[in-house]
Amino acid sequence: MSGSTPRRALVTGADTEIGRAFARRLHAGGDELVLAGGPRDALEALAGELDGAASGTRPEVLPGDLADPDDLDLVVRRLQADTRPVDLLVVGPSPPHTAGLPEADPTDLRAALDRGAGAVLALLRAALPGMLARRHPGPAGVITVAGVAGFLPATGAAGLDGAVQAYVVTLTESLAQALARDGLALTTVCPPPPGTGRGPRAVPLRLAPPTPDAVAAAALADHAAGRALSVPGVPTRALVSASRLVPYPAARLAAGRGGPRGRRGPRGTRTGTALVTGASSGIGAAFVDHLAGTGHDLVLVARDTDRLEATAERLGRQGVQVEVLVADLADAAGRRRVAERISGGAPVSLLVNNAGYATAGEFVDTDPAALRANYEVNMAAVLELTAAALPGMLARGEGDVVNVSSVAGFLPGRGSVYGAGKAYVTALSRNLALTVAGSGVRIMALCPGFTRTEFHQRLGQGRPGPDWAWLDAERVVAEGMEDLESGKAVSVPGAVYKTIVGVTRLVPRSLLRALAARSGSGRG
Ligand SMILES: NC(=O)c1ccc[n+]([C@@H]2O[C@H](COP(=O)([O-])OP(=O)(O)OC[C@H]3O[C@@H](n4cnc5c(N)ncnc54)[C@H](OP(=O)(O)O)[C@@H]3O)[C@@H](O)[C@H]2O)c1
Predict the structure, then answer these.
(1) Do 278 and 254 share a structural domain?
(2) Boundaries of domain holding 17
């Protein structure tokens, strides 16, 4: 630690082994501590232990569940306080939840998303502006604890945890790249999941699983050195590198016998009723026309009543059955009505989670409420509507879910939350596809590159990049549906974008971040 004023660090998840290890190391190094986001007993016990240590002051304690908006708000306000300001934020791991999709209770799933991704978003947004203004030489900034599951395919409960970790990794790396020039360091640490190395196949990891203290030590050293990604232990680093080149074999190596098996869904064309969110323009509107042309009935979801009704009238004249469901997916009541239509009305055979947008401007200047609304539409709605669709589809032994993601999810470093949200959508879809393999249900992430729609206009931007880089929405949809029908879990339309995604697996992540940062102004 350097500087005349002691550094103050706020650590969440201090009820976990890794969170405790961070707190002990920081306290031993002379930092003043705030222990936040965990059960009161666990935080008080740790504060008492540190208070009894030879040096340092007793940590402040701010208990609570970060999935609870009121508890999260307390921590947000502590991070924004001008008195006793926080210079280093360590967002520790969120405790794992017990069941995965499709078994889990939707409320538990939503809490798991909020405790992981939602809390990281709110805490980073609360902490960074003050840190930028003060620039404590400590070093200051943020360490987020994710995991190697963010890079690996996984099934069951680990599938959602992995998707949340993909979000945390991508968001931290994106902001690290953008804020490094302002003197702030952001680092995400990716330890192996608890239990990795116990499987008989996981020989390399069994040899040297890092201890919680080694994870904290590596993360703090990497943070001090300004590294965005910290992967402790040589075997774990090898696993992360392998996961980018050969994700499925690497996942099986990490998980032992419980690893993912079949990769492709069943082949073939299907009809029935398709529900499309964001049906009023762009890629969603192209889905509507394509699906009407292939014999589907439709449920159209978006906020713009006039546009949806005009489409319903046009398609109705062609003999297509169309329902209009006006809903704002940023709003809990809107998402609930759509979820109820999916789980309770006439069966939906194809769900297209397409609604989405990017927020304009720099992360630290964007209104937290606008970031939260974007999180609800781009991330929470995808989880909640998929959770509403899967039980019926699995019971019928047939059904498809297409989640519209983006090539941006493969490109950390663009300084925005948008790519992180799309990294989550892609990982969630891929992991769910593995989870339901063999059930007759297909789940696919559709990852377009720049596509001619209203997306960039709504962002207040022109169309970045050369004309040849732009796809038509009709082509994105036609290629996406072909990929779904051939059983793919991830579809990247267009040769240009297939090549870009292929290259992202080969180049070092630090170079990828630097390259991605150069295209940061266009966030599609
Ligand atoms: N265009 C690209 O370059 C590109 C590239 C990769 C991925 N994508 C993804 O493709 C998807 C579709 O975007 P697009 O390019 O077609 O953009 P778009 O033309 O702007 O369409 C966005 C759609 O989302 C709906 N929407 C936005 N906020 C909503 C909310 N709160 N509640 C309900 N619906 C909402 C909009 O409908 P209302 O305004 O009527 O509500 C509209 O139908 C998004 O997920 C986007 O991230 C786009």
Answers:
(1) no
(2) 8-258
How far apart are the C-alpha atoms of 181 and 165, rounded to whole Å? 25
32, 127, 232, 470 from 1: Cα distances, Å: 11, 19, 21, 49
Q: Are 476 and 422 in contact (CB under 8 A)?
A: no
Pocket of ligand 1 (CB under 6 A): 277-278, 280-284, 302-304, 328-330, 354-357, 377, 404, 406, 448, 450-451, 453-455, 458, 524
Which amino acid, residue 194? P
pLDDT 10s digits, 413-444: 777 899 999 999 999 999 999 999 999 999 99
C-alpha dist (Å) from residue 215 to 20, 83, 94, 192, 510: 11, 31, 16, 10, 20
List the one residue out of 462, 401, 457, 460 whose CA is nearest residue 431: 401
Cα 426 to ligand 1 centroid, rounded to whole Å: 16
352, containing H or E segment: strand 350-353
Query: Which of 102-116, 365-379, 497-511 has the highest mean predicted lDDT (pLDDT)?
Result: 365-379
The model's pTM is 0.94
- 266 within some domain: no
Say how many domains are in the chain: 2
Instruction: Mark whether 172 and 282 lie in a shared domain.
Output: no
pLDDT tens string 456-494: 999 988 888 888 999 999 999 999 999 999 999 999 999
Could you report how far apart the first and last alpha carbons of the chain are, in Å? 40
Residue 40 forms part of a structural domain: yes
Between β-strands 399-404 and 88-91, what pairing exists: parallel, antiparallel or unpaired?
unpaired
418 catalytic? Reply is yes
Same-domain pairing of 441 and 500: yes
31-45, 230-244, 374-388, 509-523: segment of lowest average pLDDT: 509-523
